[in-house]
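--- STAGE predict ---
source: upstream dedup step, 1 unique chain passed
mode: sequence only
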Amino acid sequence: MSGRKGPFGWLTSTFPAPKPGGITWKIENLVTATHNWIFRKSGGRVLGNFDGAPLVILRTRGARSGQLRESPVIYLADGDRMVVVASIGGNPRNPAWYHNMKAHPEIEVETKGKRRRMRAREAGETEADELWPGLLEMWPAWGDYMKRTHRKFPVMILEPLES
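--- STAGE serialize ---
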């Protein structure tokens, strides 16, 4: 569905992302945990994409707690790298996984039933500007999310760690 919104893109563009701590946030966390379980059990064959945009499960360490956290996010393949956007549906704050990556850049990703160790870094302004056209082509909803907030969405580059 490249270049247009599918049902999930329409849903997330139409309704704002839940605010942290509220009942809808708690429901979303339960849905996310269920999604991760199905994704993992199916090796990514089920719930491995949103409207055709591929998903990866990020496994990060909590910035303060050090506890393992998992977050399914859309990614853009860029050679052996992955590009992810810290949009959280246009919420005024960056998602927790962004802060986790900044504090602990060595992460693990899971996609298509395989896990890989990666190092996360934030794209510089020029690099991010070059990536945005491809990102928006893949997931047009980001354009709508940007209208909900004054913050600029960080673009994170995930690069493979040598084994």
